[in-house]
Amino acid sequence: MKMFNVYPTYDIEIVKALGSTVWDSNGVEYLDMYGGHAVISIGHTHPHYVEMLTSQLSKIGFYSNSVKISLQDELAEKLGRLSGKEDYSLFMCNSGAEANENALKLASFHNGKKKVISLRGAFHGRTSLAVMATDNPKIQAPVNHTDNVVFIPAGDKEALKAEFASGDVCAVIMEGIQGVGGIILADDDFVRLVRELCDANNAVFIADNVQCGCGRSGKYYYEDHAGVKADIYTMAKGIGNGFPVGAIAISPKFKPVYGMLGTTFGGNQLACAAAIAVCDVIEQDKLIDNAAKMGDYLMSEISSLGCGAIKDVRGKGLMIGVELDCDTAEFRKKLLFDKKIFVGSSGNKQVFRLLPALSINQSHCDKLLSALKELL
Predict the structure, then answer these.
(1) Predicted local confidence at residue 307, as pLDDT
(2) Residue 154 maps to a domain
């Protein structure tokens, strides 16, 4: 048997990692400024993370949600405190797509409606409804198709109002910062309008924080910058620092009913240990503050390079997009193979993404800046 070849890959095998440094099978060292699609939040193989997982595995790695798992309660308490949403409830799953799928399902259970508003450029996952809320027909199979999702231009307030005026809106789902879409930020006024219209029309505000959450933007959830609360926050990627963990944080307006949501692996003992370790490190090392500080430094310094090839630098915290005047594919290869630095692509071929661990320091940033200056 061979692997089903759906991923274009570089001919590099990473076999060791520590902090923001990774090594390949030939012993070559790289700076990781991408974190495997924003997954690495506290740094690779953080000692507390490793200890929590190995200690838990030596006791029990998995049992089902048919029994009490006190680690789930511990995680819910820590996530609530860290995010400032202590009155919310937690449902755990395994991935961002599952988180968004469950959020959309819960919204429809709540108000009995069907219409979902999504944004152009959105990416919410590859499961059935999440993929239809994703603005990419190439990954939507015929079996996925539904007429229940409508798309509006990102940030278009009049289009948003018009969709609500037509009635029957179940939910608005949006990334505060579109990642795959090319680091497109929702401005505070648009976020507030979503909240206002959802309140006025018994609709649910679903804030997809799979990539921009877990402190990456300089706040735990991106919508905190606008001073509003979403009804459901979806999470994955950074919440587990590499272990597959997904979750939704649910407003107290929703009432649970046995069987309405379910999962086999979500909330297992190992997943909880990983997510608890991430919460511990973020809190103890003040990584949300560090994300804001290092993000400001990077964006300011990149903008100051004075290079004509750079058209725009945008983002919030350590979710940054750099737009060039050309396709970035060859440039990213030069960064990787000449300068030994990982960065990421985006749906906009002229934008590369910086999604490093929230624990990066100025020396990491300066190494990237030096490479950019030389190559651009």
Answers:
(1) 83
(2) yes
pLDDT of residue 243: 98
Supply the pLDDT for residue 167: 87
Question: Which pLDDT score is estimated for 306?
Answer: 81
- Phi and psi at 208, nearest 5°, equal -75, 105
- Residue 91's contacts (CB-CB under 8 Å, 6 or more residues apart) are 102, 247, 248, 250, 261, 266
What string of H, E and C letters represents the secondary structure of the chain?
A: CCCCCCCCCCCCCEEEEEECEEEECCCCEEEECCHHHHCCCCCECCHHHHHHHHHHHCCCCCCCCCCCCHHHHHHHHHHHHHHCCCCCEEEEECCHHHHHHHHHHHHHHHHCCCEEEEECCCCCCCCHHHHHCCCCHHHCCHHHCCCCEEEECCCCHHHHHHHHHCCCEEEEEEECEECCCCCEECCHHHHHHHHHHHHHCCCEEEEECCCCCCCCCCCCCHHHHHCCCCCEEEECHHHCECECCEEEEECCCCCCCCCCCCCCCCCCHHHHHHHHHHHHHHHHCCHHHHHHHHHHHHHHHHHCCCCCCEEEEEEECCEEEEEECCCCHHHHHHHHHHHCEECECCCCCCEEEECCCCCCCHHHHHHHHHHHHHHC
Q: Count of domains in the chain?
A: 2
At 135, which CATH number?
3.40.640.10
Q: For the chain, list residues with pLDDT below 70.
A: none
204 domain residue, yes or no: yes
- Residue ending a domain, among 237, 257, 284, is 284
The confidence score (pLDDT) of residue 177 equals 98
Task: Give me the pLDDT at residue 308, please.
Answer: 84
Which pLDDT does position 71 carry in this prediction? 98
- Structural domain including 232 reads 48-284
d(C-alpha 129, C-alpha 140), whole Å: 10
Q: Is residue 9 part of a domain?
A: no
Kindly state whether residues 315 and 270 are assigned to the same domain.
Answer: no
Per-residue b or e along 311-321, where b marks 16 or more CB atoms closer than 10 Å to that residue's CB: eebbbbbbbbb
- For residue 300, the model assigns a pLDDT of 97
